[in-house]
Write a structure and sequence with these properties.
Blueprint: H1 2-16, E1 19-22, H2 25-32, H3 48-54, E2 63-70, E3 73-82, E4 86-93, H4 102-117, E5 122-128, H5 132-141, E6 143-145, E7 150-154, E8 157-166
Parallel strand pairs: 4-5
Antiparallel strand pairs: 1-2, 2-3, 3-4, 5-8, 6-8, 7-8
Helix pairs in contact: 4-5
């Protein structure tokens, strides 16, 4: 009976586990083509070829990108960018799978990866104040808002962001 319970538990756990690895060149082309709708369209990125020419985003060698799969489905990716005293975290979910819990799962796994890669450094992020969906995801994964909103220049103009840290 215990063996059946353990086997069933492992099957449930396996369903919840995402597999991840460092992003490949092929995957950089795939994720740079993801398109978001409405207010989220500001997260659409330049084609990877243009990023390579400019040395930015997925082509910035200082970034550490990891892709996440649920079985054979590419559900998202993260970026861990090490700085002197902290590590910045970025995330993108496949637009087809937004709102299905993958963001929170990837964020929790990113915290673990960052602790292994950059021990002793705090993990932080910036999020637009209007992006309540992302803010709630980050809070559920262990981040908290740190201070008042800050103004930051972006390609679409100045915007308000929250700075968040892992609790």
């Amino acid at each position: 009976k215990n063996k059946i319970i353990i086997t069933n538990f492992l099957k449930i756990l396996e369903k919840q586990m995402l597999k991840y690895h460092r992003i490949t060149e092929e995957e950089k082309y795939i994720v740079s083509n993801w398109k978001y709708n409405g207010d989220y369209s500001i997260y659409n990125s330049l084609p990877y070829e243009e990023q390579k020419k400019l040395g930015i985003g997925l082509a910035n060698t200082k970034n550490n990108y990891f892709v996440f799969y649920d079985k054979d489905i590419l559900v998202g990716y993260i970026n861990l960018h090490e700085e002197k005293t902290k590590t910045f975290f970025g995330i993108a979910a496949n637009p087809k799978y937004c709102g299905k819990g993958y963001g929170q799962r990837m964020t929790k796994m990113a915290i673990e990866i960052a602790q292994q890669m950059f021990p002793g450094k705090s993990l932080c992020l910036k999020v637009r104040v209007w992006n309540e969906r992302a803010i709630q995801c980050y809070k559920r994964a262990g981040f908290q808002i740190d201070g008042d909103p800050i103004v930051q220049s972006t390609p679409v103009g100045e915007e308000l962001f929250y700075y968040m840290n892992v609790k």
